[in-house]
Amino acid sequence: MRLRGKACVTVCLVLAAAVGCTNGDGDATRTDPPTSAPARTERPSPSAPTSKPPHPVSLPGLIAREHRGSDLRLGAVRTRTDAYTQYAVTYEANGLTISGLMNVPEGKGPFPALVLAHGYIDPAVYTTGRGLAREQDLLARSGYVVLHTDYRNHAGSDDDPDNDVNLRLGYTEDVIAAVKALRASGRPEIDGDRIGLLGRSMGGGVVYNTLVVAPGLVDAAVVYAPVSSRPEENIDQFQRPERDPIVAEIEAEHGTPEDNPAFWRDVSPITYVDRVTEPLLIQHGTADDTCPLKWSEQTTAAFEAAGKDVRLVKQPGEGHTFYARWRTSMDTTMDFFDRHLR
């Protein structure tokens, strides 16, 4: 636990790789420098597998890597409201420049910050900030700096031509780097010692990966309608029915789950759930037929079995897009973040 001023407070493939077509809102559907930031000591991580050098395309491979995030730059003003100003931004992630947007609340900071990880949208049609517009607005109005990452190969971000066949683990690198870039920025409006994550659909999988790869990086995380924590389930749900040619490329490179089970275990965050140190809130609709509720139930059970701080909130009758009960769910989310980040 950390002392926060007045209170003491207590978190489509390879998830980031779960893909499908989209409804235009970032959901995997069938239709588819010197820093002045406060010093921070990250919690020690449980040991990563050490029997042999990890495969570079794996979560142990990401665990073993030194992740760099820096050079957060605010560009043009996109929007001004009575509550916040929205900027186009870029930052550096392990040698790539990643684009995105950032909402900065009006008033005197520093403010706690949130990194948002959007769901799957075809990079060919994706535009900066697309996918979590409702959340960007509401969270900024609630006093959070909000950094929405575009991911590599999206919008103005640099290209990574191997990202798809490498199970899109690069998205996890981009989210880790976004947190590090916020913390290293030295900007007075950002409290680099109070940062959380929010991911939706595929972005929920990216959040799972981030919690496994970089325990202690953030203070809390929320996922909405997340994909499965078992990559093969995501392939079978989204890509194989669409006859996506990338499936054959991936299996040619890495083998099938039957032929190479060790590889597939190592790209599943559920294998390394013991590493997670942050409280996690999962919100899932009971009528979600895109990402079945059972996926979140299975993931929650694995977290609980490992003794982790996890809560699953089932929203009655809500589908994948969270329309009817979105505000109710966001009240729960903001209560959770307020408890752990303020």
UniProtKB/TrEMBL annotation:
Entries under SUPFAM superfamilies matching the protein: alpha/beta-Hydrolases
The keyword Signal appears for this protein: yes
Region (Disordered): 23-61
InterPro entries assigned: AB_hydrolase_fold, FrsA_esterase, Peptidase_S9_cat
Family indicated by similarity: Belongs to the AB hydrolase superfamily.
GO biological process terms on file: proteolysis
Stretch forming the signal peptide: 1-24
Lineage: Bacteria, Bacillati, Actinomycetota, Actinomycetes, Kitasatosporales
Keywords of this entry: Hydrolase, Signal
UniProt-recorded name of the protein: Peptidase
Every Peptidase S9 prolyl oligopeptidase catalytic domain range: 135-341
